[in-house]
């Protein structure tokens, strides 16, 4: 990788990870255009210092973290009405939380997932943690898309009930 053209390497990373990053960012921003702008800004930064990418061992994780940071920078600079819920920013900044806060969030997630079947846990994590689309989950788990949408609707409803009990 060191002997390759660094710009070619970054172009390859862009082609390989664009779709995943776009879906991830659309989930955060609820805007196709803004997601594309953030990806463009992220890769523009990478082009200004391509040596940084040569030191990365887990590229997908690094890109997701860099995309989150770029999104937060954009939010701080422009202050658009992207986020209507402060919990989104809180979840993005989880690395900066106290150990107690992290443990509480992990406990809440485990409690919520604990009420789900193994298949429903896989569906939930694929959709909301990894950002897969319905069709991708349908293919992976061999479940029809309408059934999948119904399951996700029921899971959300059940989790909301459980949340209000506490």
Helical proportion, percent range = over 70%
The pLDDT mean sits at 76
Number of strands: 0
What structural class results from the helix and strand content?
mainly alpha
Tell me the overall shape: globular
Q: Would you list the SSEs in sequence order as H and E?
A: HHHHHHHHH
**Radius of gyration from the CA trace?**
18 Å
Spans where pLDDT lies below 50 across 5 or more residues: 80-85
Briefly characterize the structure.
The chain has helices at residues 6-29, 32-48, 51-54, 59-78, 86-92, 99-114, 118-129, 134-141, 145-165. It is an all-alpha fold and 166 residues long.
Keywords:
9 helices; single chain; mainly alpha
Describe the structure.
- Helix content is 78%, strand content 0%.
- It is mainly alpha-helical and 166 residues long.
- The model is unreliable at 80-85 (pLDDT under 50).
Task: List the topology elements.
Layout: H1 6-29, H2 32-48, H3 51-54, H4 59-78, H5 86-92, H6 99-114, H7 118-129, H8 134-141, H9 145-165
Helix pairs in contact: 1-2, 1-4, 2-4
């Amino acid at each position: 990788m060191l002997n390759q053209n660094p710009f070619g390497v970054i172009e390859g990373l862009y082609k390989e990870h664009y779709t995943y990053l776009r879906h991830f960012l659309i989930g955060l921003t609820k805007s196709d255009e803004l997601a594309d702008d953030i990806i463009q800004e992220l890769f523009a930064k990478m082009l200004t210092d391509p040596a940084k990418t040569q030191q990365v061992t887990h590229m997908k994780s690094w890109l997701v973290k860099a995309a989150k940071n770029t999104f937060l920078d954009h939010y701080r600079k422009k202050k658009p009405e992207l986020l209507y819920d402060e919990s989104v920013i809180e979840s993005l900044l989880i690395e900066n939380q106290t150990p107690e806060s992290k443990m509480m969030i992990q406990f809440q997630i485990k409690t919520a997932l604990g009420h789900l079947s193994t298949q429903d846990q896989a569906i939930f994590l694929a959709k909301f943690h990894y950002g897969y689309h319905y069709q991708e989950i349908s293919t992976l788990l061999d479940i029809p898309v309408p059934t999948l949408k119904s399951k996700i609707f029921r899971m959300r409803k059940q989790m909301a009930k459980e949340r209000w009990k506490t």
